[in-house]
Amino acid sequence: MNETITQQLREYVNDIFVREDELLAFVRQQTAEHGLPQINLQPHEGLMVQLFVRMCAARKVVEVGALAGYSAIWIARALPSDGRLITIDKSSQHCALARAHIQRAGLADKVSVLQGDGRQILDKLAVDAPFDALFVDADKVSYPHYFSWAAEHLRCGGIVMAHNAFWGGQILSPQSEDDYGLVRFNQMLAEHPAFESTIIEVGDGLALGVKVD
Ligand SMILES: C[S@@+](CC[C@H](N)C(=O)[O-])C[C@H]1O[C@@H](n2cnc3c(N)ncnc32)[C@H](O)[C@@H]1O
C-alpha cells in the first residue's frame, strides 16, 4: 500500500473509532498552556491502551509517567466501579495538574497520583501485588527495571504496556543511555518465557506483553 492510502486509512480509523471528548481535549490544551511538554499519548494511542486494559478485565493498574493525567483518564475510564489506578510521576507540578484533571473527570475515587521516582514507588507498591496491568511512559533508562517489576508483580493474564517502543527509530542504531534502555526493554519483553509479546505499530510503537505463566 502506498503512503497516501496508508494515511487515508489512519484518518478513516481515527474518524470512526477515536472519540476524544471535551474533557480529554481540555487536558491536552491545559498541558500546553501550563508549559508542560506535549508528550502525552495521542488520542488513538489512548484508545488502544484503554482497549487493552478492558480486554484483560483489569481492576488494579499502575502507570509510571502521569504528566497531566491524559493517559490516566483513558485508563481509568476502562476500570470497573471498584477498580483502581495508581499513577506515578516524579514532578510535583505534573502531579498537581494530573490530580486537578482527574478530579475534573470525576475519577478521583479511582485514581491515586503518587509523586516520586518510579522505581522507588513501584518497590513500595510490591506489597499490594499482584496487579493486572502496568503502563510505562516515563524515563527510558528505567524501562528494563519497570519490566522486571511487571514480570514479578503482574498476575497471570496481566499485561505490561510501554509507550515509545520504537523511540523514534533510535532503537535501530542506539547511542544514548535512553536508546539502550528501550533496546534492553524490548529484548527482555521478547525473550521472557512467561510473556507473549509484540510491538504494535501505533504512534511511536506500543509494546504489549501478556503474562501467560
Ligand atoms: C511522556 S510523559 C507521560 C505522558 C502521560 N503518560 C500521558 O500520556 O498523558 C513522561 C512523564 O514521566 C515523568 N517521569 C520521568 N522520569 C520519571 C521517573 N524516574 N519516575 C517517575 N516519573 C518520571 C515525567 O515527569 C513526565 O511527566
What does it look like?
The chain has 213 residues and is an alpha/beta fold. It has a single domain, classed as 3-Layer(aba) Sandwich (Rossmann fold). Helix content is 44%, strand content 20%. The chain has 8 helices and 7 strands, in the order H-H-H-E-H-E-H-E-H-E-H-E-H-E-E. The chain has helices at 3-17, 22-33, 43-55, 70-76, 92-104, 118-125, 143-153, 177-191; strands spanning 60-64, 84-89, 111-115, 131-136, 154-162, 195-200, 206-211. It has a 7-stranded mixed sheet with strand order 3-2-1-4-5-7-6, with helices on both faces. Strand 6 (195-200) and strand 7 (206-211) form a beta hairpin. Helix 3 (43-55) packs parallel to helix 4 and helix 7 runs parallel beside helix 8. S-adenosylmethionine binds at residues 39-41, 64-65, 67, 70-71, 88-91, 94, 117-118, 137-139, 142.
SSE arrangement:
Blueprint: H1 3-17, H2 22-33, H3 43-55, E1 60-64, H4 70-76, E2 84-89, H5 92-104, E3 111-115, H6 118-125, E4 131-136, H7 143-153, E5 154-162, H8 177-191, E6 195-200, E7 206-211
Helix pairs in contact: 3-4, 7-8
